[in-house]
């Protein structure tokens, strides 16, 4: 396990945060709602998320689009994100 996911008691994957800064997508969602943040750059500035390994970035993008804050699937990075 990479540390980016944890198994729930039911055995499903649970991805809920940027593990590099230990900030949950729910915390980012609340900030985005409160401050009107609409893109990853604004959340990166506020939390320093997506500055380390970058694996959380596609989840943050999905969270901003869908309101989802806990994911049970691996979202691969876009090619430019994978070059970090
Ligand atoms: S998990 Fe967010 S930068 Fe590494």
Structure in words:
The chain has 84 residues and is mostly helical. The chain has 4 helices and 4 strands. The strands form 2 sheets. It has a two-stranded antiparallel ribbon. Helix 1 crosses helix 3. The protein is globular. The relative contact order is 0.21. The structure holds FE2/S2 (inorganic) cluster. FE2/S2 (inorganic) cluster binds next to loops.
Task: Map the helices and strands.
Elements: E1 6-7, E2 13-14, E3 17-18, E4 23-24, H1 25-35, H2 40-47, H3 57-66, H4 79-82
Antiparallel strand pairs: 1-2, 3-4
Residues 4, 18-20, 49-56 line the site of FE2/S2 (inorganic) cluster (FES).
Give start-end ranges of low-pLDDT stretches. none
Compute the CA-based radius of gyration: 12 Å
- How can the largest sheet be summarized? 2 strands, antiparallel
Please tell me what the overall shape is.
Answer: globular
Share in helix: 25-40%
Overall SS class: mainly alpha
Q: What count of structural domains? A: 1
Level-2 CATH architecture: Orthogonal Bundle
Listing every helix as H and every strand as E from the N terminus to the C terminus, the arrangement reads EEEEHHHH
Mean pLDDT: 88
- The strand line-up of the biggest sheet is 1-2
Please work out how many helical segments DSSP would assign: 4
Molecules bound to protein: FE2/S2 (inorganic) cluster
Strand content: 5-15%
